[in-house]
Amino acid sequence: MADTTVKRERGSEETNELHCEVKKTKVDDNNGGDGVGAKSQNALSGFKTSNVLSVNAREKRIVLHGKVADEDAVVILEKTPFTEDTMDQVFKGSTLKLDMKNYIYSTYQLQASPHYNEIKTTLVCPATEKHISKYKHQESFFVEETKKDYETITLPFIEDQTTFSLEWVYNILQKKAEVERIVYEDPDPDTGFILLPDFKWNQKQVDDLYLIAIVHRMNIRSLRDLTAEHLPLLVNILQKGQMTILERYSLPSSKLRVYLHYQPSYYHLHVHFTKLGYDAPGCGVERAHLLSDVIQNLQSDPQYYKNRTMYFPLREEDKLLSKFKEAGRL
Ligand code: M7G
């Protein structure tokens, strides 16, 4: 049986995925300092749900909007994937309640020991209107963005600072948060980056591997800013990212999907590394641009992403969608 368990250098107690300070608790500070990995008092015991933003039975995930100590909060609860190496223990310490039996078929409710009933929990607090909207189920619409649309609609929108705060990105780059999660760093100010697990991944199995590479350069907002000048940076991310993932997780480049989002949610260049076969959120053709394609396009045309028309979906409540509508582009 293949061992799909992630080789970990740290202990296995890193269950605390809280990403902001919860008032009146000692969970963490806003820079994500101490407290990571420690068992904290239940910061969510007083959580009051105001509404369900989305629920997905197949992915076994629910996203709630509510209040934690009078602050708006978004909580994402997700059942975690099975890990093969814990199966024996799951069976040993569990009780079985029969639901039905018919011929050779029977179904049960298995109650495993609490240790195996972990629920991955992500908290955004205080959550802004944008966060509440981001996690809400909404209809999407395809947008066509010409070079001119980018200059007159999208760029002013990004520069207006109405997009998501990049505080968490700067915390990572300045080693104020998630320091112990860094998997690889190339410190070069031009071609360097930090590779670390995306907060969507619990790092317990490689089946849903998800890492992000965040570039050290501060002036690259998105794919649109890339020119041939950035090729050494992009090639470096691809090569060193793939090499690191092979060494650390025994996953060869033939098993990796490496891509950028357009539009991203966060306008500081970063690259997504996910396992091929894992249906990662946002890996579809409407948003994901393979890094290898991006490199080739810039090799054949240094201004490729400055000039071309881009297509991407925007959701009903996206402010950028309103801007395209106001400009008569939808
Ligand atoms: P994106 O394409 O800008 O936006 O990707 P998306 O969220 O719409 O895909 C940003 C990526 O960064 C996503 O995959 C997020 O899950 C991930 N991410 C976001 N935050 C706030 C954090 C964080 O605080 N830590 C880590 N490690 N990853 C994050």
UniProtKB/TrEMBL annotation:
EC number(s) recorded for this UniProt protein: 3.6.1.59
GO cellular component, one term: nucleus
Cellular compartments annotated: Cytoplasm; Nucleus
Top-rank taxon, per record: Eukaryota
Positions of substrate binding: 168, 178, 198, 200, 261-272
Keyword Hydrolase found: yes
Gene Ontology MF terms: 5'-(N(7)-methyl 5'-triphosphoguanosine)-[mRNA] diphosphatase activity; RNA 7-methylguanosine cap binding
Catalytic activity: a 5'-end (N(7)-methyl 5'-triphosphoguanosine)-ribonucleoside in mRNA + H2O = N(7)-methyl-GMP + a 5'-end diphospho-ribonucleoside in mRNA + 2 H(+)
Listed GO biological process terms: deadenylation-dependent decapping of nuclear-transcribed mRNA; mRNA processing; RNA splicing
Key words of the record: Acetylation, Cytoplasm, Hydrolase, mRNA processing, mRNA splicing, Nucleus, Phosphoprotein
Class of enzymatic activity (EC top level): hydrolase
Active site location: 270
Assembly and binders: Homodimer. Associates with components of the exosome multienzyme ribonuclease complex, such as EXOSC3 and EXOSC4. Interacts with NDOR1.
Function: Decapping scavenger enzyme that catalyzes the cleavage of a residual cap structure following the degradation of mRNAs by the 3'->5' exosome-mediated mRNA decay pathway.
Entry similarity comment: Belongs to the HIT family.
Protein known as: m7GpppX diphosphatase
